[in-house]
Amino acid sequence: MSAEGGTKAIVAALAANLGIAASKAVAFAFTGSSSMLAESIHSVADSGNQGLLLLGRKRSERDRTPEHPFGYGRERYFYAFVVAVVLFTVGSAFSLYEGYHKISHPEHVKAPVWAFAVLIVAIVLETFSFRTAIKESNQVRGEQSWWSFIRRAKAPELPVVLLEDLAALVGLFLALFGVSMAVATGDGVWDGIGTVAIGVLLGVVATILAIETKSLLIGEGVDPDTERTIVEALESVEEVARLIHIRTEYLGPEALLIAAKIAVYHDDTAAEVARGIDAAEARIRARCPEAKLIYLEPALDEASRTGAAEAGAAAEAGAGAAPEASASS
């Protein structure tokens, strides 16, 4: 994901959520609808979340230090995890509490015209934000399904914005349903039911985000296709006999660490091994540009060493047999 693309989606979501939060707060003041209050709090939380994502991107760009020799790329994962926590605690927990309160003590929705007008405006703005996130994601998603993209993306911003916008859109329709039923039936319990549904929705989204960002935060390696590409690049070098083992880990969305042990030929000189390592690193970076740190450990190829030993033993045996043959003659 390009930095520009991710930032564009975040800024679009931030602008939409600020406008929506303000309009929902006005609607709540006129209607007293708990769905409107829950949606307003949701939009405020989303606005803060986009701010956290922008902060994480900025802080991840700092240069490495002796204390953090691999840099600060994982700060983006940390702030994405904080977003999931905020979405759950501020959005989901508050909505569930407010919905329970409204179901226990139902109230009539006042001035419903305000609620409907604000919900329609919010749906339009949120659709614009969601459309921007989809457009930016399509530039990097390739042929992956949406679920696979969310699960496998190493840059957390677009998946977070996508899920937030989706939850916001569905939440708006749930709020519209709750308010509509409360007005149509005169029973404020429907407003509370809509609010509880919003809380459950936000809880599910927050859980998905927490699971995915936690996995990135503690360290993920490359997918099998990328690993095969790296192995092919390594073993295409003439001085590399074969790969013994490999470990990979993302230090950030655009920073991949590769550590591998490679078998080299028994008769190669140190200079030849060094040239082979340099060539292998160059080929890996050509095929996998995010490979910023590559550590290759050479080891003697056991197969070639065994072959050399067997050849030496055969030569010694042949040399010992010659004098015996001449003596017998």
TrEMBL record:
Q: Which ranges carry the Cation efflux protein transmembrane domain? A: 11-217
User: Subcellular localization, per the record?
Assistant: Membrane
Q: Which UniProt keywords apply?
A: Membrane, Transmembrane, Transmembrane helix, Transport
Cite the Pfam families for this sequence: Cation_efflux (PF01545)
Q: List every stretch annotated Disordered.
A: 307-329
What kind of membrane protein is this, topologically? Multi-pass membrane protein
Entry-linked Gene3D superfamilies = Cation efflux protein transmembrane domain (1.20.1510.10), Cation efflux protein, cytoplasmic domain (3.30.70.1350)
Q: Where are the transmembrane segments?
A: 77-97, 113-134, 160-183, 189-211
InterPro entries, per the entry: Cation_efflux, Cation_efflux_CTD_sf, Cation_efflux_TM, Cation_efflux_TMD_sf, SLC30A9
PANTHER family referenced in this protein's UniProt entry, alphabetically: HUEL-CATION TRANSPORTER, PROTON-COUPLED ZINC ANTIPORTER SLC30A9, MITOCHONDRIAL
Protein name according to UniProt? Cation diffusion facilitator family transporter
Please tell me the species this chain comes from: Actinomadura monticuli
